[in-house]
Amino acid sequence: MTSNVGRRRFLLTGSLVGAGVLATACTSNSEETGNTNQQSVSTGGDNDKPGTKVTIGFSAPAADHGWIAAIAKNAEAQAKQYSDVDFKPVEPTNDINQQISAVESLIAQKVGALVILPNDGQQLNQVARKAMDAGIPVVNLDRVFPDKLSYRTWVGGDNYGMGVAAGHYIGKKLKDKGVAKPVILEIQGIATLPLTQDRSKGFADALKTYGFEVTAQQDAQFTVESGNEVAGNLLQAHKKIDALWNHDDDQGVGVLAAIKQANRNEFFMVGGAGSANAMREIKNGGVLEATVTYSPSMASSAIKLARLIAQGKGMADLVEKQVPQSITLASETITKDNVDQYLPLGFES
Fold it and tell me: Most CB within 10 Å of its CB: which of 179, 239, 254, 318?
């Protein structure tokens, strides 16, 4: 991800499939009535049936990155599934002040709910709080607002879990190979973002269980160009490498290019997010052996949740009458063994 980007990925057609688990949680095709004990509760009915007309405002960074492009496409496609949703996206931008102004325009229009993926949660916290104070529920997507009063529900990926998944893959493989003091490199996205810090912590914590630690770490801003430059510098600085974790498959295009240019293949690499090109690299064999997911299907889920909240509904498969305050998607590890299963869901970098 980048300050211009948000974090990680799947194609439009796959996004709705990728959101399947959560979508199932949001809808129910039949009504069940508990009659075995007093704790059994009748669940909600079909939440996908047309209900009260609602307007959902949407704001996200500019789609100059594969994952962010998938986020915008998924949100729009999901909104189109509902005849009772009027979808109002504002112009995507990587300028903080412009995004604040765009959100303020949606507040002025008195939309029924807002879905916001902020360029920076800290800097957009105040305008999100303004929406909540005006009675407009905010579904905070991916980059979290620090003030819980600034959003009704947060939905996003498991950044710490991404790091843990990558750390376990690398740690186990090196341990099985009997490597005593491995050289492990880490290429982050944007170092100042909490999501990046969570990923790095999860990675370090997982490696620690194998007695390993990160040898060198550098951020690459979630761009292909920076990925290429940073990887080139790290390759020059380390004549022997055992493993590399790159946080983001979009910037990974540049990382892989640098590796190929340097003609280095003594190590293996793990990616992050689940892009289609990363999966193709995994399928073909080579340095990139795995990637850990961070699905942009979360945008589809955010629209579903915003609609339910605006209509005063809960998630039909849950006992509770309201949508939960926080929903975290799981991070999965894609390898050559299961890549064919995930490839149709990959977003293009």
Answer: 254
Domain count, the chain: 2
Of 132, 75, 143, 83, the residue nearest 309 (C-alpha): 132
Q: Both tokens of residue 187?
A: 């290429």
Q: Number of H helices and number of E strands within the chain?
A: 12, 12
With beta carbons less than 8 A apart as the criterion, state whether 304 and 21 touch. Answer: no
% pLDDT > 70, the chain = 87
Containing structural domain, residue 303: 12-157+296-329
Q: Is 163 helix (H, G, I), strand (E, B) or coil?
A: helix
CATH code for the domain of 28: 3.40.50.2300
Query: What pTM did the predictor assign?
Result: 0.80
- Residue 152 and residue 164 in one domain: no
Segment (H or E) for 177: helix 159-177
- Give the residue carrying structure tokens 């669940």: 43
The H or E element that residue 66 is part of is helix 66-79
How many degrees, rounded to 5, is the angle at CA 138 between CA 134 and CA 141?
155
For position 33, what pLDDT does the model report? Answer: 36
Chain centre distance of CA 126: 23
CA gap 95, 249 in Å, rounded: 23
Q: What sign for the dihedral angle of Cα 103, 59, 254, 187? A: positive
What's the average model confidence in pLDDT over 71-87?
97
Question: Read out DSSP for 238-304?
Answer: -S--SEEEES-HHHHHHHHHHHHHHT--SSEEEEEE-BHHHHHHHHH-SSEEEEEE--TTHHHHHHH
Average pLDDT, the chain: 89
In terms of domains, do 134 and 165 share one? no
Same domain, 181 and 283: yes
DSSP state, 150?
G
pLDDT digits (tens, 9 = 90+) for 82-103: 999 999 999 999 999 999 999 9
Q: What is the pLDDT of residues 16-68, one digit of tens each?
A: 333 333 333 333 333 333 333 333 333 445 899 999 999 999 999 998 889 99
